[in-house]
Amino acid sequence: MMRGLSTPHGAMKAVLVAQMVIGGALVAIDLRGTPQAAAPGLFAPPAEGPSVRPYRPDLRPGGPGTPAMRPMPEQLLFEAEGETIRITGQIARGDADRFVAWLDKTRPDTATVTLDSSGGSVSDALAIGRTIRAAGYATTIAGGAVCMSACPYLFAGGTERTVAEGGVVGVHQSYFGENTLLPAFMAVKDVQRGQAAVLDYLTEMGVDLRLMGQALKTPPEEINILTPEQMTDFKLTT
């Protein structure tokens, strides 16, 4: 559980230890182009599958009468339905600005944002999370939906946060920087800047920084599925 992460000082210490490892990996691997293999139970709830699984940002679970796996949209899709905003897809660069523009145009009278996203751009996720918090919206993950990689940062923006039975939430090491083909010291600089922004954000949203321990120990090509108990313990759910 990495007790040392229970304070900001402990979390920062763990981040600094992990940065050189992550930076070296960024130089060797272009995470956006790494091939991934599908696996049985990839999107199974925590009780029905392993805690660490292959990460497939391009896929999402199927629903009744649909294939077992469906493509995950390459950028976020926003939809207002009654008192709910639905956000679906991978988080692409520029999605934070698109979300603000969509809110200004749609002006939904809503109280809840429901998420189904495999993650993506961390900076956009943090910006969208802050927009959700400023609007006073709650966030939820429905049964059969996923919220992985950078998506939990959107989720953390909710004033109230719930995960339905069958919802899947997962974290791993984040990708920072425009280009992985950089000198190692430059890659690590991007990691340091990005991790500091994430730590500040989680503190701002009232999430326990021990959540970062689960992320830092999981490589980017895998995803660490959180149990309901962990989400409660880390104050990710309210």
Task: Please give the share of residues in helix.
Answer: 25-40%
Shape: globular
Q: Kindly, what is the distance between the CA atoms of the first and last residues, rounded to a whole number of angstroms? A: 20 Å
Largest sheet: 5 strands, mixed
Average pLDDT: 82
Tell me the number of strands.
11
Q: Which strand order does the major sheet show?
A: 4-5-6-7-9
Structural class: alpha/beta
Radius of gyration: 17 Å
Number of helical stretches of at least 4 residues: 7
Low-confidence parts, pLDDT < 50 over ≥5 residues?
20-40, 178-186
Q: Name the helix and strand elements from N-terminus to C-terminus, one letter apiece.
A: HEEEEEHEHEEHEEHHEH
Strand content: 15-25%
Short summary of the structure?
Strand 5 (about 85-90), helix 2 (about 95-105) and strand 6 (about 110-120) form a beta-alpha-beta unit. It contains seven helices and eleven strands.
Task: Provide tags for this entry.
7 helices; five-stranded mixed β-sheet; 238 residues; four-stranded mixed β-sheet; alpha/beta
Structural account:
α1 (8-28) runs antiparallel to α5 (184-205), α2 (95-106) packs parallel to α3 (122-135) and α3 (122-135) packs parallel to α5 (184-205). The model is unreliable at 20-40 and 178-186 (pLDDT under 50). The strands form three sheets. The chain has a five-stranded mixed beta sheet with strand order 4-5-6-7-9. Strands 1-11-10-8 form a four-stranded mixed beta sheet. The radius of gyration is 17 Å and the shape is globular. It is α/β, with parallel strands linked by helices and 238 residues long. α3 (122-135) links the parallel β6 (112-120) and β7. Helix content is 37%, strand content 21%.
